[in-house]
Every structure is written in C-alpha cells, then in structure tokens.
Specification:
Blueprint: H1 11-19, H2 23-29, E1 45-46, E2 48-54, E3 57-65, E4 69-75, E5 86-92, E6 95-96, E7 105-106, E8 112-119, E9 124-131, E10 136-142, E11 146-153, H3 165-169, H4 173-181, E12 212-218, H5 235-252, E13 256-260, H6 270-279, E14 284-291, E15 301-306, H7 313-323, H8 327-332, H9 342-367, E16 373-379, E17 390-398, H10 402-408, H11 411-430
Parallel strand pairs: 1-6, 12-13, 12-14, 14-17, 15-16
Antiparallel strand pairs: 2-3, 3-11, 4-5, 5-9, 7-8, 8-9, 10-11, 15-17
Helix pairs in contact: 5-11, 9-11
C-alpha cells in the first residue's frame, strides 16, 4: 500500500459529503476510476468511509452494512521511509467499492493526514489512517447497519495558534484562526443548520470570555419518525419543535453559542450527531427524545447519561429502540464507555442530567400539575458514545400515553420542556461548572 499515488481530495467537497452526499458519489462524480479485482457479490464490503475532523479530534466511520470481523492496530512513524504514525483496521472477508479502493481522503489539519484503503492479502481490506502525530484512539463497532468507528484524540498536543488564548475562546475564532492559514482547514460551521449568527463573533452584545457552546440534538428525523403516539403524533416532529424553542431561548441571552444537529426533517446517523458535537467543540450536548412503552399507562420524564448497561429491562429496551437495534444486539456490543472522552465528563453529565430533569418537570408542572419525574437514569445510548463534552439525553414524557401525547401537542407544554432545559443549561454555564481547558 505504501508509495501508492495519492490524489488530493478537496476538503470542501469532503465536508459537503459529511453532511449529505457520499464520498463514493463524489469520487464517481469527479471521474475517478480504478481497475480492481471483482468482488464476490455475496461478500460484505466497505460501502463508504466517512470522517469528521478538526485539529484536535477526528472520527472516522467505516460502513460495511453487514457484520464483519475486524482488527485495529497501530504503527509508529518510520522517518527513514517517510511514513507517519498510522492506525490501521483490517477487515476480513470483505470487499470494497472500487470507488473507495486506494483513494485516500486527504485532510492534513495537524491531526489527521489522510484516510486510505486497499486490499491487504487475499481476503482482507486494510483501512489506514495516516496521522500527523502520535495520538490516542479508540475503535468500536456499532450494529444496524454495521459500521466501525475510530475516534482519534489529539488533545494535549495542540499546536500553538498565532492568537491569544482569549481570542481563541471568542466564538467563531477557534475555527477561523486556522482557516486563515490553511484553506483546507474546517470552517466554523459544522452543518448547514448552524444559525447564521454563530460565526459573527457577537461583537454587538457584551461577550463573556467565552460563550458556552451548546449542541442541541433533536432525535430521529427523515425516514426515522421515532416513536409514534396513539393519534399519530411523531417523536421526530415534537423533538425538533422543542429543540428550536431551546435554541431561541438560549440565544436570546447572548451567553450561548447554540447549534443543532438538525434543523429540518432529515435523517442523521447517531454516530454523526456525536461527531458534529465533538467537531464543533460543544461544551454541552443535549439529545432530545420522547419515550414510548407497550404499557400505555407508562408516563413521566427522565434524563439519561451514558452507561455500559441499564439497570432494568425497560431502560435496555428504550436504549435499543433509540439505537435502532434489537436488544440482543445492544447486549452484544462492547463499546468503551469509560474511555478518554466520556469518562472525564461523567460526573458533570450526571449533575446536568439531574438538573435538567428536575427543571423540566417543574416547568411542565406549572401548566400540567402532576407531571411525573422518573429521575436521573443511565443506559447505553449510541448517540452519547464518544461525546467529549457534558452529554445528556432527555426522554420528555411518553408519546405512547394518550394523555401525555395530547400534552405534547400543546405548545405551552413544549415551552415548559424547553424552559427546563434552558434553565439547567444556564445554571451550568453561569456557575462555570463546565470544563473549558481543552478548548
Ligand atoms: Zn427517540
């Protein structure tokens, strides 16, 4: 694989790919084509390689669809051969789309140099991630559809930027600084849904040393309606409405830089939502969902943090449903919870989750007395795996409960839920509980 011809892929197109199109589609459209041995039709194959990256963080997703056997390893830099440190993932018995084969995705942002793939031996495909410098990493797989996720952490080895620390903390300038030096650097925006005001720097309002950056994640969307209530109310629509309310209320204060993983009825894979929050250097990640149960009398609000398992069957079934996999798949997944990203934020996430849940129930209760709190909980939600920031997932009542479904049709109830989240986030922001040292 070494010494192969390397084509530079325009990062603007790569970013566009990250939002919607596929890399394969781009490569096809750009006219690349390579002769490759035919792949047996029955063999599972790499259908796509996706990446989200900034100068201290990268997530790479390798899509295979069907479950494959894989192994990850590293190679140290070999200066004599001009080779950088490398992470490689060998996937056995797999094919690879010709469009992806041996076509490196160049990034060169100080952390990641490029991602490339090729055949290694008779029945193995090797995906190689060329790093700019030694970095820690985690690899895990998610089922349904099967994909291998590589999280690379460049924290602690951040190259000095030619700006003052205060300037770096000013909204917009973190990403703007490198882009002035390198046209291939990532932009401030992580998605088209970023509010237009975000990159402005907020010079018209009194700006704190840094504004707390919040990523709101309305669950589901597009082809995935989420849970559906007895009269047809869809979770994806409710959580988007709540998310927009939260954004509006938080932005009103001028203290927060608020982004959303989606601001439309679009489908976004779970691992991409987390990657958007990490890439956008969010301080807080709030994933919004509505619960559902075969027991139509189930009711109440709960807020979750990530954990390896669940304390009861209901929470396990909830996580499986939110993850889009059967419970048996969920139990079989061995992803790393106490990893370098999530572990350090666990206590903050627990505190924020409790504050959010208490505040949401209190605000909804002023309009609907008797709103139930199911409290702070923990379960293995994929969307929280690998989040580098304080991260919680809200299950704002049961859409399967006729009374709670009708409540969710009431804008004042959605306002109450949003007010609760906003109050908790503001409390955290104002009390400086959140760690910013890594940004
Ligand atoms: Zn959901």
């Amino acid at each position: 694989m070494e010494g192969e011809a390397r084509e530079r892929v325009d990062l603007t197109l790569l970013r566009r790919h990250l939002c919607a199109a596929t890399l394969a589609a781009f490569l096809c459209a750009a006219g690349f084509s390579f002769a490759a041995p035919p792949v047996a039709a029955a063999a599972p194959g790499i259908s796509d390689i996706r990446a989200w990256t900034n100068e201290i963080y990268t997530r790479v997703a390798i899509d295979t669809g069907d479950e494959v056997s894989w192994q990850a390893n590293t190679l140290r830099a070999d200066p004599a051969r001009g080779l950088p440190p490398r992470i490689f993932i060998d996937i056995r018995g797999a094919g690879i789309r010709d469009e992806i084969l041996r076509k490196p995705v160049e990034v060169r942002n100080g952390l990641l140099r490029q991602v490339r793939a090729g055949r290694f031996g008779r029945d193995t495909v090797r995906v190689v991630i060329d790093l700019e410098r030694e970095s820690t990493y985690r690899v895990f797989a998610l089922p349904g559809p099967f994909r291998i996720i590589v999280d690379i952490d460049g924290e602690g080895e951040i190259p000095a930027l030619p700006t003052t620390p205060d300037a770096v903390d000013t909204p917009g300038s973190v990403a703007a600084a490198p882009s002035s030096e390198d046209p291939a650097a990532p932009p401030p925006a992580v998605a088209p849904s970023v509010p237009p005001s975000a990159p402005s720097g907020g010079s018209a309002v009194p700006v704190r040393k840094h504004r707390v950056r919040v990523m709101i994640d309305p669950g589901h969307g597009g082809k995935d309606p989420g849970a559906v209530g007895p009269t047809g109310l869809r979770e994806k629509d409710v959580v988007l409405a709540i998310g927009r309310r939260i954004r509006e209320k938080l932005e009103r204060s001028g203290e927060f830089d608020v982004r959303m993983t989606r601001d439309d009825d679009v489908f976004i894979p779970l691992e991409e939502r987390t990657a958007m929050a990490n890439k956008g250097r969010a301080d807080i990640f709030v994933s919004l969902h509505i619960n559902a149960s075969p027991n139509r009398r189930a009711e109440g609000f709960s807020t979750y943090v990530l954990s390896r398992g669940a304390s009861n069957r209901e929470d396990l079934e909830l996580a499986a449903r939110e993850n889009g996999v059967p419970v048996r798949k969920l139990q079989g997944v061995k992803f790393i919870i106490d990893d370098m990203f999530t572990g350090a934020r666990k206590n903050e996430s627990l505190r924020l989750a409790k504050t959010v849940n208490d505040a949401v129930v209190r605000h909804v209760s002023t309009r609907y007395p008797g709103a139930q709190s199911l409290g702070l909980k923990q379960a293995p939600f994929y969307v929280l795996v690998g989040a580098r920031m304080t991260a919680v997932l809200v299950e704002a009542s049961f859409i399967s409960n006729a009374r709670e479904e009708s409540r969710l049709r009431d804008p004042s109830c959605l306002d109450g839920i949003a007010d609760g989240v906003v109050e908790a986030v503001r409390y955290y922001g104002q009390n400086g509980i959140l760690a910013h040292s890594d940004y």
